[in-house]
Amino acid sequence: MNYFRLLMVAAALSLPVAPAFAATPPAPVEASAPAETAEHFLASLKQKTGTITLPSGIATLKLNDNFYYLDPSDTERLLTDGWGNPPGFKTLGMIVPKAVSPLSERGWGVIVSYKNDGHISDEDAAKIDYADLLKSMQEEDEADNKERRKQGYAGLHLLGWAEPPRYDDTTHKMYWARELKADDAQQNTLNYSIRVLGREGVLELNAVAAMADLPTIKQELPQVLAFTNFTDGNLYTDFNPKTDKLAAYGLAALVAGGIAAKAGLFAKIGIFLLAAKKFLVIGVVALLAFVRKLFNRNKA
After folding, report:
1. Mean pLDDT calculated for residue range 221-243
2. Options 2.70.50.60, 3.40.30.10, 3.40.50.1820, 2.60.120.1690; which CATH number does 38-269 get?
3. pTM higher than 0.85, yes or no?
């Protein structure tokens, strides 16, 4: 057996990892490490194109050739298995650009959801102090993070506005962006939020990406807005004060997340790729251990 060739291969593979023959034995394989590759995971996601009627029937997506749609079940898989969020997020699906893998460092997507809490009045639009609102949201981080850590997930911190909130009273759309930091993430996460006010509720579009992708998101989101529309009869201007319910909150609470102040704080931690890298490193260490035993046996 040419153990010198094995040694050379192992040495080449060990370049990005810790020293090969450290005295401390390698850590055991984590039971949660995924068995499938990133390619298999992505292939299992059902990409839908063309005109999509969202599950609630409240809105449609007329996708152009640059995007595809994931249904709610595949969206949850990407959020949890791919990006490291806790399970249980209820969405209407996700809009994903075709040009980049959602599991890559530059990957991103727009999570779609809808809240039918009632018609949201925009009368307080000019009165909101967004600096005070940000401070209030940050103060709630610790309690929320205790629950995340209890479930085995990293804490998630709201660092500040990546783009301050602004309201367009012509289109009845609210825009803002938040910068988030997970305890175990090397880069910060961007949540770019758009809220489209409707007759009986609000359509929520949350673009989740890395902070470095803010210019890309700002450039691409107009496309997403262009093909996202309420169905007939559900527009903001269709509101009937005699028959329709008013929401119990206004625009300030909308930015904070409605009744649940932290709703919609998704993160792109990249846990799938991180776990895959751990699996690969463990395999390299095992190969090095085998080569060392072979080398010592021949030396003896």
Report:
1. 92
2. 2.60.120.1690
3. no
